[in-house]
Amino acid sequence: MQLCMQEEDLHGDQEGLTTFTNKMLVRSYFDASTFNNTFQQIQSILTNDLEDYRRIMRYRFVFLGNSGVGKSSAIKCMLNNPPIIKAVPEVGPPSIHPQTSLTTVDDNTQSKGDWYKAYVQFVDVETAASSGSQGSSLLGSLNPLNVFSSQTKGVADPAKIFAELVDMPGDKNFRRMLPPTLLPSKNAVYCILYDLTQSFENIKAHIEAELVFLHANVARTYPKTVGGDAPRVAFCLLGTKRDEMREKSELSVVSFLNKLVTALGDVFFRLRGEDTAGLICIGNFASSARDWAVTSTKGDRGPKTFRDLVQFLGIVASQLYPNTPTNLLPSSRDTASHMTYMLGDEVVENAVEKTSHLHPVQQRLRKGLITLLTGLGREQKVRWLMSESEMRKLVSEHLGIDAETQFGAMCINYVIREIAVRGIISVVPNAIIEPKYLPRAKDDVAGPNKHPRDGIIILDPQRMYLFYSLFAAPGVLPKGGSAASPTKPQDTKASHFDPSSLARVSTTYQRGVMQQDVLEVLFSKFTAYFNKDIKLVSEFLAVAGLGISLKSEATLICPGHIQSRISKCLTEYIPYLVSLHGDGLGRRYRLNAATPAFFARLQTVLIPFAIAPSREPNFLKLMWSDASLLVLDKMRLKWGIFGSRRVKDAVMQAAGTPVRGILKLEGDLLFIAITAKGGADSSTMMNVCRNIMDAIHTEIGILCSRFQRGVKAQFQELTITGYAAKRQRMEEGIETVLGRHEVPLTEIVAQRNLVGSFANGREIEEAIHQLRPEFCDDEE
Ligand SMILES: Nc1nc2c(ncn2[C@@H]2O[C@H](COP(=O)(O)OP(=O)(O)OP(=O)(O)O)[C@@H](O)[C@H]2O)c(=O)[nH]1
Ligand SMILES: [Mg+2]
């Protein structure tokens, strides 16, 4: 602080503000006018610090909803005052990139208990000093810093609550790519928008999908043993375009809102389960961007304008997620606030806000947290990445804790996690802040718990959103090389790529395969951050869970990008061939919250068996967004650097018995069927399959517990037997299955010949490679 530097020779600076001011007061030769001047500086520094702190700990309102529901319009209404002649605010074309805007609302609900939310009140120093008993007590002198806005004297600034409005693109691909770690689970209110002019059933289905998405991505619970809690994930429902509804009277709108909530009860309670934590609904509104008006079921007591709504959300958020330093530390027994640590107990009237009873170490931690956060805020302005080890060092320095001790390691981890779940930073891979990796004390370094690599701390999650939206862009990029596209990115600042140059690059992008040249164009502006090292970018994408890296191949495989869906024909034909192939196992998993991202992630884990990291047309043909042909064969191990070790080990153990299968997602159901090649005795086939199935099962479990915490899976199993008998009727069988899908007879004959007697073990892939493309995909 500039102030302290100035006074250093007189008072020294190390003791902190309270001692410092105390010392000043006992010096008789101290010049009162200097003191008063200094005081104003103290005031302004504190105000700035407090504001910085609040800004960093801002609440986030994340807008979700299909393209065109009016997210961008609603945000415009929230940020501006209504125009004189009310009209729908002008918005650009569909948003491609997420955009954020910062706003503040006044917290006028504050009581003495929440005094830390109040602004430092600017009262003239002269008057305050003359009214008090001249310099007798520190408290008297500090009166100008009166923060009790509920007191009647003076005009107190109400507290400001900072809120960031995050406008998410409605694009489905973006959602599919977005890693759950990017979405905050604390300090966030998810606003689910829906179009009131649509049918009730559509609206219901849409909101359900959003709730599933939220639940799968955001619900993170940590056991109490590691100091965790189950965050409440707040969401509100906001119907748009009320002005275009057929029945738009207040009464019918309100009854519509109530009806909706009743209808959603089912899915809501299914997702929430037994927990009292998890999803909570904090509001249910209808709105019209044309009238700039909001309607709620609370009638006059609820928000009536968009500004009111922001105000309402801000206040609810601030009550739901307290932001005092204590809330970011493992033990939360005291309630002291930011200001107490900055000013000292003397100015605090409310006993629960005092800190002096705390152990000095605890006090130190809390004070350190404030400097850590404001420090992070400064870092965010100059760079957007730092290494995990640097972050850990930073925390340990600010908080004064020894990272080598168990408690220290736990504490550092806890703090980083709390900062991350509030969306202040994000971390990749997210495992680095998982309690599982605790403790990371010194004697553990060589042990198996040590994470194999240093993680990355992203200081600017906003830029990460951009990054992912770039990556997810194929759906909105011009197809067929036309440069003049109606879907130009609407904001040049956000536009980090140039669609026309991407269109010039030959690409298999749409099929989840990205070549180096495409990556270069796509990330031309981003590579600057990585010293133009494209390999590093791809490595980064791999760490971020987006695909597998470019090591031997010049391609990046990213299942999240795969667009085409498996055809109806193959959905029948592959399982049929698999059942001819040998005996084995089938499972049907029921997922409580199945998201496409979950499936893409499972495909990534199962590389190279589900998807071969290769650009050969034969392999490209077998890439679908909702299904995978599983080739659990030793020959796939040539891509041995990718995918799950566990599954690879199981395949290794199967030795010479090739295993084939299919993986398919249908709604909430995930089907897996695998069979070992017939010929061996039945128990060998079963053992091989069970082994591999167990490995896949473990991977599904890990995905549920780590990647998408809200997802739970239950399965039913059945055995697949009698392949020999089925083979005898194979000729007719193939004809029946393929004939149903209008595959011509010549092709059916060719298929029969290819499959033959399953002698070489690769018949299934080869048969499907040979099938004409129109029978393989159903384009979306
Ligand atoms: N009449 C009426 N039109 C609205 C309202 N809200 C939005 N619109 C119109 O709906 C269209 C889509 O609105 P946007 O705000 O761009 O939708 P969005 O949700 O941001 O869409 P994406 O960016 O594609 O995700 C625009 O033409 C808006 O003018 C409303 O309350 N009433
Ligand atoms: Mg938009």
From TrEMBL:
InterPro entries: P-loop_NTPase (IPR027417). SUPFAM superfamilies: P-loop containing nucleoside triphosphate hydrolases. It comes from the Eukaryota. This is Uncharacterized protein. It comes from Bodo saltans. The lineage of its organism: Eukaryota, Discoba, Euglenozoa, Kinetoplastea, Metakinetoplastina.
